[in-house]
Amino acid sequence: MVSAWRTFRSLPSWIIPLVLAVVILLLPVLGLDLSTSRQIQLACILALVVSGLNLSLGFAGELALGQAAMYAAGAYTAGLMSQAGHTDILLQLAASGAVALAVGILTGVPGLRLGNWSLAMTSFFLVLLVPDVLAIFGGKTGGRNGLTGMEPPTLFGSELDTQQYYMVVVVVTVLWFAVMRNLVVSRHGIAFRTLKLSPVLASSQGVSVFRMKLLGYAIGAFPAGLAGALFANTDLFISPEAFGFTFATAVLAASILGGAASVYGAVVGAAIMQLGPNQSTAFQEYSLIFYGGFLIIGGVLLSGGLTKVGRAIVSKLDRKAGMGVVTAKENGGGTPELAAINGARLVVDGVSKAFGGNQALNAATLTAEAGKVTALIGPNGSGKTTMLNMICGFYTADAGVITIGDTVVSQSSPHKVARVGVARTFQTPTIPENITVLEAVASGRYSVHRASMASAVLRLPSFRRIAKADIVEAERVLELVGMSHLRNEIATSLPLGMRRMLEVARAVIAEPRVVLFDEVASGLDEDELERLADLIRVLRDAGATVVLVEHNFRLVLSLADEIVVLAQGQVIATGDAATIEHHPRVLSEYLGVKSGDEEALLEEIGAVDHQTSEVK
After folding, report:
1. β strands within 447-543, DSSP E
2. Tens of pLDDT along 52-68?
3. The pTM is what?
4. Contact 362, 339 (CB under 8 A)
5. Are 372 and 562 in contact (CB under 8 A)?
């Protein structure tokens, strides 16, 4: 049993879906009746629409119900083309997909610009407007009576019979899910997940948040357009009632029930909805009530949908078979090494920032040189993280200038600052769900070594080269932080200390010119702390500009070439470790030491001069 399971798990992840697709494709040849064949076609069409919602909601984190409107746009595009004599199904699919994509872009831009729940609201009203829009153009669309007069679909000039059209529907569905799968498992899929979890983290990795959100929503519209074209040619009649709010709710229910953050969850949810309750007349009469029930079941009782339940079962069987079990902690061999880094001088000149009546920074100044560690210390609330956020572009300065090398970044957006060569960690480690440690670290290379979505979908040589380089670099950096043995573990399952080290690895992998560490030592054990200190020294020696915000005074004194001390938003002291550790105001403001207690405190924390000289 165990050996059989191991053999099964050794198969590529796409093998089982491919086998199922071939079986479904050949069902008519095996004697499938017309009624069941039609239901499978409709399930495939629904799965296409649901997959678009999964992409925008489950992966990109954009709640939008607009797929029903894109579905209608695709259906009426194909219907009008058929009326005009353009019956080739491939031509209709291309046109319908393009029209749905255009509708997605046009409706997505204003919704995303307004932010927060605006996209959900605009897409919701878009669905409600579909019948009225069709009625306005009733001369062409048939209005509320529906579109008739369509011709049977053809392929390369030959009319398709029922069995041939069934195969077209299945093949189109399979091809789209292959495209979606390639996209989701690529670096772009991880970027979507990162965006869903934290737009702040995504932008710090060089991802344009607005552009990525729009891509997720617009690309999700494309399969809805394909589904519309296939639906129009199923019965050669289109009615506005097929694209209303009830259908939009059905799509959302199928997505939640199957699993929104899953490629094949769309298939599972659509199959359940179409082949199960939709066959009941009573269900059709009370469909909204039933859809609400499915939403509750999928969203509350089955958080993550049926696919999450399936993954949990698979993980349990893996553990029973002894697969994926980490047996021992590896510490990495020898002293870590990095290639030379072209560090950039960071200058924060007279920067001020106020939040209402709270003056977070007041004419603060900091200079960090390449090849040196500059520590930024101070009591809680002194403005340290605010300064890091301003350097990264998350806040705009009220006054002052921030430059990195020769580039002024004071007014730059976060993703543009990241592309200048700035990487950072956060006080709370932020890692997307359902990705491995290796994938999480590799995501740090997203903006530095870029590959288009088209190359990812088509698996072009350019994408394969970059994907291979991502793996090589991620494995190398994991070795540096002593986590190479965890490469295939789910990143979010790691304890806090390891997640912090993983975040450090993610920041380091792109060999950034400036690295900002925000209280990264918090939660680390002694071994991890030593590994972190070694890595910071290696970054410094490689030429990077390192800014360290840290409360561990011993670590600061042992690593910093220059220390800047903040208190109440102002710089109160600047100097090397020897100067700062005996500075009276620093000891008073930062450590709360009264006059005469300095020597006792320094002995307690072990911050003696010879520790500092070891680094230098």
Report:
1. 514-518
2. 999 998 898 887 878 88
3. 0.85
4. no
5. yes
